[in-house]
Write a structure and sequence with these properties.
alpha/beta, 6-stranded parallel β-sheet, 14 helices, globular
């Protein structure tokens, strides 16, 4: 980036949004205050810097099989791929690729040693998965936070919220004492949800929306927790995104709720830009019509959503990726006894004509 070049391996989507005149995820993160490594204050091109944000994926233990995910992040997908075996058809390949690193235990110990040394300068500690509330290392993480103090630390868990309600409440109470004892500055939960209704339960396979709402509304009642939504925009989620945002808005009458957005880029056929450039335009009009625009974070979320809209409008229909999407959904239906045609009737006219 310092040489005016873009990295590959996923960064291209931010470039596409910026080329279309939109606000990318990269730009949103650069605008977050107070997280700049101190070295950059004196040298804006420094590359050896003190990390302010630490983000950890301990393993792939997860209880959901989201359609845009893979076995590296979901043990349930890994088990499904093992059960059904390799699938290859029309350019689409589904197979197990995840293997636990041979030196996993050694690397994990090295991480804790590094964090022990550098903990005082970390400002944000993100725990992701899989599903953190079901990972073995989660208790180790809480023990570490109990045995160390960083009054400037913001501890964030990204969760799908398909957690037993009692388990969730027990963990929340444990973490509450970290804040009360001033061992950390604050605690955040970022709840993952993409759209609404049966379409969301298909996209995040294994999710029960009623249980998700029960857990989320419990968190809404815990005013001491900083609460966020993490939403993945994909080819399957756009039409019911207004319903999701409408629900979030009702919960915002009780407290502030942050809103983070990301676009599904892998697998490539999950990106909404594979369809006709104007296909989702009426839905984006509805989405932006219900998105609030008051706080700084809400304004950044709107900018990102608008950037995605602009990027899609600047793209061309991709029949190769559309064919892969249909092949993939047909195979998921065979494996899971679901029906994408019944769940996404608006999509049948696009996929079944090819």
């Amino acid at each position: 980036m310092l040489d005016g070049e873009w990295p590959t391996g996923g960064c291209e989507y931010c470039r596409k949004i910026e080329d279309a005149g939109g606000t990318s995820d990269r730009m949103v993160h650069l605008a977050i205050p107070d997280l700049v490594p101190p070295e950059l204050e004196d040298n804006t091109i420094a590359v050896a810097v003190t990390p302010r944000i630490v983000e950890v994926y301990f393993d792939n233990t997860c209880n959901l099989s989201c359609v845009y995910c893979h076995d590296g992040f979901s043990s349930r997908i890994q088990a499904e791929n093992t059960r059904h075996g390799r699938f290859e058809h029309r350019g689409l390949v589904i197979d197990n690729t995840h293997q636990r690193h041979a030196n996993f235990d050694q690397i994990t110990q090295q991480f804790w040693s590094w964090l022990d040394t550098n903990y005082a300068t970390v400002r944000r500690f993100h725990l992701l998965g899989g599903e953190p509330f079901y990972q073995q290392q989660f208790d180790t993480c809480l023990d570490f936070l109990y045995n160390h103090t960083n009054k400037d630390l913001e501890f964030n868990i990204v969760s799908n919220l398909m957690v037993d309600p009692k388990r969730l409440r027990d963990y929340v109470e444990r973490i509450k004492s970290l804040v009360a004892d001033r061992r950390i500055k604050r605690f955040e939960i970022t709840a993952s949800i993409d759209c609404w209704g049966e379409q969301q339960e298909y996209v995040r396979y294994g999710l029960d929306l009623q249980q998700w709402k029960q857990n989320f509304e419990y968190l809404v009642s815990q005013r001491w927790i900083t609460l966020n939504i993490n939403q993945v925009i994909s080819v399957l989620t756009v039409p019911t995104m207004p319903d999701l945002i409408g629900y979030i808005n009702t919960q915002r009458t009780h407290r502030e709720i942050g809103h983070h957005l990301i676009t599904a880029n892998e697998p490539t056929y999950m990106n909404p830009d594979i369809l006709d450039p104007d296909f989702f335009e009426p839905y984006f009009e509805q989405v932006l019509g219900v998105m609030p625009n008051e706080t700084w974070q809400q304004q950044e979320a709107r900018k990102y959503m608008q950037g995605v809209r602009q990027q899609i409008a600047a793209s061309a229909k991709n029949t190769t990726e559309i064919n892969k999407l249909r092949t993939y959904l047909d195979e998921l239906d065979r494996r899971r006894n679901t029906s994408w045609r019944n769940t996404f009737p608006w999509l049948t006219g696009v996929l079944d004509v090819l």
